[in-house]
Structure formats: C-alpha cells, structure tokens
Specification:
Layout (H helix, E strand, L loop, with lengths): L8 E5 L15 E3 L5 H5 L6 H8 L1 H7 L3 H4 L25 E4 L2 E2 L5 E3 L4 E2 L4 E3 L4 H7 L2 H10 L2 E2 L3 E3 L2 H4 L12 H26 L3 H25 L4 H10 L2
Parallel strand pairs: 1-6
Antiparallel strand pairs: 1-2, 3-5, 3-7, 4-9, 8-9
Helix pairs in contact: 2-3, 5-8, 8-9
Length: 245
Amino acid sequence: EDPKSSEIIKPFLVGKDIKRFQPPISDKHLIFFPKGFTKNNSKGFKSPWRWVEENYPAIANYLLQFEVKAKKRCDQGDYWWELRACDYYGEFEKPKICWGNLCKESPFNIIYESYYINAPAVFIPVSDLYLLGLVSSSILWYFLTNISAGRNGGYIEAKPIYVSQIPIRAINSSYETENALRNEIIRNVEALLKLNKEKQSSKLQSQLEQLQSRIDYHEQKINESVYALYNLTDDEIKIIESQVK
C-alpha cells in the first residue's frame, strides 16, 4: 500500500527455511521497529504513535489490530510496536553462515541477503566459504553428531554450545599445499551454491538427476580436501563414510 513501508519490512526465516547450500525461500516478513527507533526519529511529535501513523500509515493501520495483545508483551521496546533491545540487529543485514537448530544432516548454509532469523536458528555474520566447506564436510558432521544432544527421529541439536567445539583447521599461508586445499574447498562450495540454485528452479526429472550427480561430485571433492587437511588415514575415512549418509 505504501512504498515507504519497505524501509522497515525485513525478510524473515525460521529454522526449517534454512537448507544446506540452498537459496532461502520464505514468504515471512518482520516489521522492524527496534527499541529506540521511535524515540530517535519522532522528536517534535507530541505522540510517538502519531509519528508512526504519519510516516508509516499502512503499517500503523495493520498493527492496530494487535495493540491489546502487544501491550501485554514482556519483551517490547519503548513502545508496544517495538521489538526488544538487541545488540546485534545490524549483523542480520550482513552475509552470514546460518543453520537450524534441529537437523538430520549437516545443515549449514550461507545467506548473502539481509534476512532476519529467529531463535533457535543460529548464524555467524561472516561470508567465509572455506569455513562453510569445513563445517559442511562429512568429518565435521561426524564430529558434531558425536558430541551433540540427540532427539527423536534421528535429529541432533546443533546448538552453539556444540558447534563452537568443532575443530576448525587454520591454514598456514606459507604452506602451498594447505593454500591449494583451501582454494579447492572454496571452489567446490561456490559450485554447490550455484548448482543448488539451479536445482531449485529446475522441473524436468532428467535435469534434476544431472544436477544431483554434479552436486554429489562436488560434495565428495570437499570431503577429499578436508580429509587431506585433517590428515585422516584410509581406515579413518572408511569409518566416517560408513556412518555419515
């Protein structure tokens, strides 16, 4: 109704919307009035709500139906239409590695757009494709499944308390072999992001099968590079691949 509304309407994801290497799809949105937003912008107005009505009339009209319930919230900002205080709202605007809390397979993805994400989904505000490749590999998924709390149906909890224990292999830039493996991981992650985007929009079964075959290839190439970085033996690789689907 009002183009100005787009200033404070943010695309929004819940955990189940975040899928491994896939572009996010969601029709959810967040009306983003953070704590302090109204006070900082409504100086000169006798009524803070009047400022909202004049500057965002369509949103004000929409929010009125929730006024009674919103006033009972214990997590509101300065006013009933505001969100609670949060030190990291700005981080949602950045590229981020993110994942849902409950998962059956390695759940990590990168989202470049300014999606806001609700708990218990988690994000790290970085665009490090090497890190994404590592945490998406079979060996680190195997590690995570062995330290995380299990849930019914074969799910695990990928909470920060567990994910933060994943051993991330730092690269020594003076070693050519390590740099080459890092670059190979990044190239394969880039390929997976591209292929999964193509797969999302493909309809023909033959195309889907071809794309999946290429996806499987690049997934395996990431695993091979990570196995080399972590110096796994053939026997150790067999153990991991026999238990990780």
